[in-house]
Amino acid sequence: MAIKAFAPAKINLTLHVTGQRSDGYHLLDSLVVFADIGDTLAFTPGSELSMTVTGEHAAGVPTDNRNLVWKAAESAGWAGHIDLNKVLPHGGGIGGGSSDAAATLRMVADQGVAVSPDAALSLGADVPVCMLASGTRMRGIGERLDPITLPPLPALLVNPGVEVPTGTVFSALVSRDNPPMPDAMPAFNTPEDCAMWLQDQRNDLEPPTTGLAPDVASVLEELADTKQALLARMSGSGSTCFALYPTMNDAHFAAYEIGAAHPNWWCRATQLN
Fold first, then answer.
1. What is the pLDDT of residues 67-87, one digit of tens each?
2. CATH of 3-147, one of 3.40.630.30, 3.50.50.60, 3.40.50.300, 3.30.230.10
3. Which residues lie closer than 8 Å to 229 by C-beta, 6 or more apart?
4. Which listed residue (100, 126, 204, 250) is catalytic?
5. So where are the chain's domains?
6. Which CATH class is domain 153-272?
7. Catalytic: 4?
8. What is the mean pLDDT of residues 8-24?
9. Res. 90 pLDDT band, cuts 50 70 90
10. Among residues 67, 125, 149, 241, which one has the fewest Cβ atoms lying within 10 Å of its Cβ?
């Protein structure tokens, strides 16, 4: 019988680039949360590793050892067939591939196989935080993880359908030595409290991404103009952007507005935790 797993979208509420190591890895300080939408995976144990990808964003996703899911299963010594239902746009800055790999490692761990943090980090900087799949402050190159309690955050995710390679974004970054978030984070009781604090934080990759992809700048403008929007920002290195709202009704209404005006954009109301 297949083992089911869920790989939620990862959202960077903040992403401060605070330095760069001599080996080229960038140092980050990021507040990460996860959506209630994501990819789903089904694992059927067998003698050999194989994989199929279905879903609205299946096109172009490799089904061999180029896929992070395959690499995760292989690194953990798991064999069998994997069916990945790809709901999240790939290359969208919401950790689709990393979350899929993390779900694979969680599945293996649930079967009693030890998975080391180094094994997760070797697959990508976002994989360790995606293994936690809950509110986390992520620092260093992705290895320093501190749980953070946030109120449920009604949100709208929008992707204009353009891919911006992460390497290209980092190459366009003007400064790699920027201030981190404050050492101590306040407690938030409401989405409004959280959004107000986030206004003073940053995504340092947003300016280079909007310079490279004007469509991302258009999404941010549209989100900021929706009724009741508390904050509009890009996630990760883009191209997915998000807005926060006081209630899920507000998020759904904004999804209707933007979806009607831009039917080709990927647009999902969700709750972040």
1. 999 999 999 999 999 999 999
2. 3.30.230.10
3. 223, 243, 244, 245, 254
4. 126
5. 3-147, 153-272
6. alpha beta
7. no
8. 97
9. confident
10. 149
C-alpha–C-alpha distance, residues 265 and 42, integer Å: 28
| pLDDT digit string, tens, across residues 183-197 | 999 999 999 999 999
Are 156 and 268 in contact, with CB atoms under 8 Å apart? Answer: yes
E strands in the chain: 3-12, 16-20, 26-45, 50-54, 80-85, 136-140, 144-147, 153-159, 231-234, 241-244, 266-272
Amino acid at 202: R
* Residue 110 known to be catalytic: no
Burial-class residue 49 by CB neighbours within 10 Å (0-12, 13-18, 19+).
middle
